UniProtKB/TrEMBL annotation, chain A:
Pathway field: Lipid metabolism; sphingolipid metabolism; Sphingolipid metabolism
Protein family per UniProt: Belongs to the steroid 5-alpha reductase family.
Every 3-oxo-5-alpha-steroid 4-dehydrogenase C-terminal domain range: 155-308
Topology in membrane: Multi-pass membrane protein
One Pfam family in the UniProt entry: TECR_N
EC number: 1.3.1.93
Gene expressing this chain: Tecr
Source species of the chain: Elachura formosa (spotted wren-babbler)
Subcellular location(s) of the protein: Endoplasmic reticulum membrane
Protein name: Very-long-chain enoyl-CoA reductase
Gene3D superfamilies from the UniProt entry: 1.20.120.1630, Phosphatidylinositol 3-kinase Catalytic Subunit, Chain A, domain 1
Catalytic reaction(s) noted: (2E,8Z,11Z,14Z)-eicosatetraenoyl-CoA + NADPH + H(+) = (8Z,11Z,14Z)-eicosatrienoyl-CoA + NADP(+); a very-long-chain 2,3-saturated fatty acyl-CoA + NADP(+) = a very-long-chain (2E)-enoyl-CoA + NADPH + H(+); (2E)-hexadecenoyl-CoA + NADPH + H(+) = hexadecanoyl-CoA + NADP(+); (2E,7Z,10Z,13Z,16Z)-docosapentaenoyl-CoA + NADPH + H(+) = (7Z,10Z,13Z,16Z)-docosatetraenoyl-CoA + NADP(+)
UniProt keyword terms in alphabetical order: Acetylation, Endoplasmic reticulum, Fatty acid biosynthesis, Fatty acid metabolism, Lipid biosynthesis, Lipid metabolism, Membrane, NADP, Oxidoreductase, Phosphoprotein, Transmembrane, Transmembrane helix
TrEMBL record, chain B:
Stretch list, region Disordered: 1-23
EC number: 4.2.1.134
UniProt keyword list: Endoplasmic reticulum, Fatty acid biosynthesis, Fatty acid metabolism, Lipid biosynthesis, Lipid metabolism, Lyase, Membrane, Transmembrane, Transmembrane helix
One Pfam family this sequence matches: PTPLA
Membrane-spanning ranges: 33-56, 94-117, 164-189, 209-229
Purpose: Catalyzes the third of the four reactions of the long-chain fatty acids elongation cycle. This endoplasmic reticulum-bound enzymatic process, allows the addition of two carbons to the chain of long- and very long-chain fatty acids/VLCFAs per cycle. This enzyme catalyzes the dehydration of the 3-hydroxyacyl-CoA intermediate into trans-2,3-enoyl-CoA, within each cycle of fatty acid elongation. Thereby, it participates to the production of VLCFAs of different chain lengths that are involved in multiple biological processes as precursors of membrane lipids and lipid mediators.
Protein name from the UniProt record: Very-long-chain (3R)-3-hydroxyacyl-CoA dehydratase
Name of the encoding gene: Hacd2
GO biological process: fatty acid elongation; sphingolipid biosynthetic process; very long-chain fatty acid biosynthetic process
Keyword Transmembrane helix: yes
Family: Belongs to the very long-chain fatty acids dehydratase HACD family.
Annotated catalysed reactions: a very-long-chain (3R)-3-hydroxyacyl-CoA = a very-long-chain (2E)-enoyl-CoA + H2O; (3R)-hydroxyhexadecanoyl-CoA = (2E)-hexadecenoyl-CoA + H2O
Length: 308, 249
């Protein structure tokens, strides 16, 4: 029986933070993280970045010690990732905010539009429709976060939540202000425009949901391994023929439809920013797919069929 | 915000590193950069000369803006090209953080030039305009000649000293001129509703340029001290490094 030894050094100062002897060679990095955590209680596993090289990438939990290029005494480097927060928690906070903030404006709370307008309601049906759609969108997202999504990484740095919430909550307030304003002007092409937008909205929401379910099903068997997503019997997933990240495509579609429905510049600006952000994410994901799979369908584009 | 010396750049400016590699593809790029910096130096010299001539002709320093309006707009906006090249990484050897800082400075200068001074005609006769124009002019002449000499690998200590010292006076001078100009523009913006749109309108959007200008002025409070102290820090680093170098010779 040969046991390994592991020493863990600080990535910057190279000071030895811990020395583990009698480690089983087939121990996983997860187990090593737990052992490190016992010796340094304030660095819980999620905030540990353990790497082979001080400037290298963090090792995954599933990696096995004896498969790494180390001798019987392994030297690993530790970097503190800072306080972490779970993705599920982040999403729940991020999405609950806009839901309730929108209501503040919809119900015209006292401080929003002035005392004379408090608790009045809009004469335009589209304003009610917009509230229903906006709420539906965020409730759907909350449900997906709890029941559908499987996150490949458990946590993110705590400071991200401030940044993300400012963005989502801020924009929700900004666009809700104009849509529910007493001086709101309904869309120029009236019912035709609104009906078109509603249909587009529902189709995109259904599409987005279908993709999330399909992606989640992919991960059901192989916990953290990556697989190529393919179209299924559900027609909404047929977008996988053309793009790597149809969930983003549908999401942009949802917001475009909301812009058309409300004919409101702040909504349009939010849609534009969403589009830019999602294109960046989609291109990233697309590159990851291309790198990991030799047989990845070559005609697929990241987010817009044939174009982008 | 007037960047006297633009101290956010690395020690020798972007020219320094380029000049060290004398052979190979660097030569052509260096050539273009030298031409660009010489042109910019000349441009700001034209503005400086224009100011002096106008002052001598009029006998007073009021309303000198009109005599240099066009070259000022041209060369200040030209700095946008420079910023684009920096961001697109066509210009070599810059510390990433300085791209953000210089972007800030360039944007604020262009904003002052076009969105305030050009747009609100009534402030063009204000003395505060002269204040920032003079600050920018001296700063830019020194900065572009600094880059030119660095690229040619023949940097006189005087230019380096000037670039990292004069900002101490020029930067606050420029900032004061800018803030006073924006402040002077406020009543005219309020009166004319410049660049503002109010509800109701079919785009369901409102924008109040008056409030926006006030927010811009407030933003100087956190940003100006940061930039100023960053440049003081750069100064200590650059000038003490040179002295050590001299001592070792």
């Amino acid at each position: 029986f040969v046991s390994s030894q592991v020493e863990i050094l600080d990535w910057e100062t190279k000071k030895q933070l811990c020395f583990l002897d009698k480690v089983e060679p087939n121990a996983t990095i997860r187990e090593i993280r737990l052992m490190f955590h016992k010796l340094h209680p304030r660095w819980y596993p999620a905030r540990q970045s353990i790497k082979l090289d001080p400037k290298g990438k963090s090792l995954r939990d599933e990696e096995i010690l004896q498969h790494l290029p180390v001798g019987t005494t392994a030297t690993l480097y530790f970097k503190d990732l800072g306080p972490q927060i779970g993705w599920t928690t982040v999403f729940l906070i991020e999405y609950t905010g806009p839901l309730f903030i929108y209501f503040l404006f919809y119900f015209r709370m006292t401080f929003v539009y002035g005392l004379d307008e408090r608790f009045t309601s809009s004469p335009h049906p589209v304003v009610n429709l917009a509230c229903i759609c906006h709420s539906f969108h965020y409730i759907k997202r909350l449900i997906e976060t709890v029941f559908v999504h499987r996150f490949s990484r458990g946590t993110m740095p705590l400071r991200n939540i401030v940044k993300n919430c400012l963005y989502y909550w801020g924009f929700a307030a900004w666009l809700a202000y104009y849509i529910n304003h007493p001086l709101y002007t309904p869309p120029s092409y009236g019912k035709k425009q609104i009906n078109f937008a509603v249909i587009m909205f529902l189709l995109c929401e259904a599409g987005n949901f279908s993709i999330h379910v399909a992606l989640s099903d992919l991960q059901r068997n192989g916990s953290k391994t990556c697989k190529i997503p393919y179209p299924t019997k559900n027609p909404f997933t047929w977008l996988f023929f053309f793009v790597s990240c149809p969930n983003y495509t549908y999401e942009v579609g949802t917001w475009i439809s909301f812009t058309i429905m409300t004919q409101c510049v702040p909504v349009g600006l939010f849609t534009l920013l969403c589009f830019i952000q999602m294109t960046v994410w989609a291109k990233d994901k697309h590159c990851t797919y291309l790198r990991e799979f030799k047989d990845y369908p070559s005609h697929r584009m990241p987010i817009i069929p044939f174009l982008l | 915000m007037a960047a006297a010396g633009g101290g956010s750049r690395a020690d020798n400016g972007y020219g320094g590193q380029q000049a060290r590699r004398r052979k190979g593809p660097g030569a052509l790029a260096t050539g273009y950069l030298v031409i660009y910096n010489v042109v910019m130096t000349a441009g700001w010299l034209v503005i400086a000369v224009g100011l002096v001539r106008a002052y001598l002709a009029k006998g007073s320093y009021h309303s000198l803006y009109y005599s240099i309006e066009k070259p000022l707009k041209f060369f200040q906006t030209g700095a946008l090209l420079e910023e684009y090249l920096l961001i697109a990484k066509y210009l070599p050897g810059i510390v990433p953080s300085s791209v953000v800082l210089t972007a800030f400075q360039v944007m604020s200068r262009v904003f002052l030039t076009w969105a305030v001074t050009h747009s609100v005609k009534e402030v063009q006769t204000e003395d505060s305009v002269l204040l920032f124009v003079v600050a920018w002019t001296i700063t830019e002449i020194i900065r572009y000649s600094f880059y030119t000499f660095s690229l040619l690998n023949h940097l006189p200590y005087l230019i380096k000293w000037a670039r990292y010292t004069l900002f101490i006076v020029l930067y606050p001078m420029g900032v004061s001129g800018e803030l006073l100009t924006i402040y002077a523009a406020l009543p005219f913006v309020r009166q004319s509703g410049l660049y503002s749109i109010s509800l109701p309108n079919k785009y369901n959007f409102s924008f109040d340029y008056y409030t926006f200008l006030i927010l811009v002025m407030i933003s100087y409070i956190p940003i100006f001290p940061q930039l100023y102290f960053h440049m003081l820090h750069q100064r200590r680093k650059v000038l003490s490094h040179t002295e050590e170098h001299k001592k070792s010779e």
